[in-house]
Amino acid sequence: MMDEDDLKLMEDLAQKASFLTRDLSSDEPVHVKKRKHESVIDKYEKVPRRMQTEPEKELIHLLPIKDKGGIIPQTMEKPVLNVAQNEEEDTEEMEEAEDFNEELLPVLTPEEMAAQRRQKLQERKMHIAALASAILSEPDNNIKKLKELRAMLMEQDPNVAVIVRKLVMVSLMEIFKDIAPSYKIRPLTEAEKATKVKKETQKLREFEEGLVSQYKFYLENLEQTIKDWKQRKLKKSNVISLKAYKGLAEIAVKCLCELLVALPHFNFHNNIIVLIVPLMNDASKMVLKVFLHLRIKEVELQKDSEDIAPKKKFMTYKEKRKNLSRMQRKWKKAEEKLERELLEAEASESKEKKLKLHTETLNIVFVTYFRILKKAQKSPLLPAVLEGLAKFAHLINVEFFDDLLIVLHSLIASGGLSYRESLHCVLSAFHILSGQGDVLNIDPMKFYTHLYKTLFSLHAGGTNDDTGIVLQCMDVMFAKRRKQVSQQRALAFLKRLSTLALHVLPNSSVGILATNRVLMQTFPKMDLLLDNESQGSGVYLPELEEPEHCNAQNTALWELHLLQRHYHPMVQKFAAHLIVGAPTEGSGALSLDLSQRPATELFEAYSMRGMTFNPPVASVTPRRKDTFSQMGSFVDEELNKQLQQHISETTVHKPLDFAKHLKESSLL
C-alpha cells in the first residue's frame, strides 16, 4: 500500500506530459489536460471585471408651455428598447416566415426546373438585347442605361448567374467598341467647366463624361473578376462556384484583349496593358501561344533602300533669311508648323524603326523558345514552342540551324511527343531547310521517314485538326523542295496518301487529293501508278517504313476508283480528276476556283465542325400525291398493254375459228 503523500505525488506527475504517459494517438496539445482541470473559480477570477452601469437616459425636448410665470420647458425620457428581446422576436418572425415559405414552395420536377431556367434565361437575354439596342440607337440620350446593363454583372440567381454575367461582359464590350469615339477623352479643367457653352456642346460633354465613367467601372469589374480568380477568393454572398468562376475570368481576359486591340487610342489603354501582361506568367498552356499572333513573318530581314522614304527636311533660319522675303518667311513658318502637326498626328514610323523593333521582339521570342527546348523538354509549354518554331523558323539565324535540327530529331526519336508535337517538329525542320537553310548540305531523310511511317496515325474522326499540319508538311517537303526529292519517294507518298484518303473525313480526303494533284503535276512520270503493268523488279511493300525502298512503282492507285463512289461530291470530283492524270485543261480539268485553292484552304472550306454538309444537300422528297399518280400511271400502262394484247388475240384468232366453223358447216 502507498502512502497518501506518495499517491498524490504520482497523480501530480501523471498530469505532466512525457513520451511515456501521453497518448500518442491523440491530437490534443501537450498541456491541454492541465488547462482542462483548472477550477471554475480560477477561470472566473481570470475574467476581466466590468462595471455594470445603467445606461444614460436620453431626453426628448417637447414644445414648451407658457403660463403667468413664464415659459416652462417640457421633456420626456426616450423609451429604452430591450435589444435582446427584439432580436428574439425578429428571429422568431424570420423562422416563421421561412417555415411559411417552405410550405408554399412547390416541389418541381427536373423537367420543370429546366423549363423554368430556360424561361429566366430568355427573359435576361431579351432585357440585355433591349438595353443594348437602345444604347446603340441613341448613345447620347441612353448613356445612363449602361449603368443598368452593368448592374447585371452582379446577377444573383444561381441558375442563370454564370451565363448572364458572360453575356453582359461580351455585350458591354461590343457596345463600347461601337460607341467609343476615335479620340481620347480628357477631363475638363475648372475654367472649362465654369465657361458657358452651347446646349450641343454641353450635351456632348455629359455624354463623354458618362461614357468614360461607365467604361472605367466596367474595366474595374473585369479586373476584380480576374483578381478573385487568381487569388481563388469568392465572396460569401457569391452564387457562382470556383470552378465556374474560371470561365468568367477567361471571358474577362478576352474582353480586355478585344478592347485593347479595338480601342488602342481610347482612355485607360495603358491600364489594360498593365493588367494583361502579368497574365502571361500564368501556368496555362495558352501562354506562349500569344507569340503566334506576332506579325513578324511579313517583315523582310534585309533592308530595301528604295522602300525607305527620305525624311522631310525643313529650311534653317539662315536659309530663310537668305532666300526668302519677310512675308515669305512668315508663310513658310506657318506651313512648316502645319506639316509638323500633321506628321505627329499621323504617327507613322519609318521602316527602319519597325524593322529594329521586330528584330528585338523576335530575339526575345527565340530566347524563350530555346530556353524551354534546352532545359524543359517535358514542359507542358513544349507544344506551343514547337508550333511557334514552325511559324518563325524561316527567321532564325543560320548559325543555329545545325543545333536546332539535332534537337528536333532527338525530340522525335525520344518517343515522348504526341503525334501533333512530332508533326510540328517535322514542319519546323523543313521550314528551316526551305528558307536560309537551302544553302546547307543537310539530308532530312529521317524526317521524311518519320512522316511516312506515321501517316496512318492520323485521326479519322471529328478531331482531325492534325490533317492541316500534315498538308502543310507535304507542301514544304515536296512542292518547295522538288529538286531535292527523288521519284521513288514521291511515288511512295502518293500511294500512301491515296490509301489514307479512304479512311478520313471528307474534308481531309479533299485536302489529301488536292495534295496528290500537286504531286502528279510537280513530278514527272507519276502517272505510272495509273497503269496496271509493273515498271520494274520487285513487289510493292506497303508495310515497309522506308519510302525509298518500298517499290511503289509496282503498284497502282486502285483507291481512286473507290473514291469515285464516295458520298461526298467534291471527293468524287477530285478522284475523277486524278484518274485521268490531273490535266490542267480539257474535259477532265478542275474549275478555276478549285485548281487555284491550296490544300489547306480546301480542308478548312469543307470542314464539318458545325455539323453542316458542304455543299448543302438538296432536299428532294416526293409528295404522296405524286407517288400515287406515278403508281396510277404505271398501272394504267400495264392495263393498256394487257388490253391491246387481248384485242390483238381476239382480232386474229376469232376470224380463223369462224372460218373453220363455216368450213365444217359446209361439209355437213
TrEMBL record:
<protein>
    <recommendedName>
        <fullName>Nucleolar complex protein 3 homolog</fullName>
    </recommendedName>
</protein>
<dbReference type="InterPro" id="IPR011501">
    <property type="entry name" value="Noc3_N"/>
</dbReference>
<dbReference type="InterPro" id="IPR016903">
    <property type="entry name" value="Nucleolar_cplx-assoc_3"/>
</dbReference>
<comment type="similarity">
    <text>Belongs to the CBF/MAK21 family.</text>
</comment>
<feature type="domain" description="CCAAT-binding factor">
    <location>
        <begin position="422"/>
        <end position="575"/>
    </location>
</feature>
<dbReference type="Pfam" id="PF03914">
    <property type="entry name" value="CBF"/>
</dbReference>
<feature type="coiled-coil region">
    <location>
        <begin position="317"/>
        <end position="360"/>
    </location>
</feature>
<dbReference type="InterPro" id="IPR005612">
    <property type="entry name" value="CCAAT-binding_factor"/>
</dbReference>
<feature type="domain" description="Nucleolar complex-associated protein 3 N-terminal">
    <location>
        <begin position="124"/>
        <end position="218"/>
    </location>
</feature>
<dbReference type="Pfam" id="PF07540">
    <property type="entry name" value="NOC3p"/>
</dbReference>
<keyword id="KW-0175">Coiled coil</keyword>
<dbReference type="GO" id="GO:0005730">
    <property type="term" value="C:nucleolus"/>
</dbReference>
<keyword id="KW-0539">Nucleus</keyword>
<dbReference type="GO" id="GO:0003682">
    <property type="term" value="F:chromatin binding"/>
</dbReference>
<dbReference type="GO" id="GO:0006270">
    <property type="term" value="P:DNA replication initiation"/>
</dbReference>
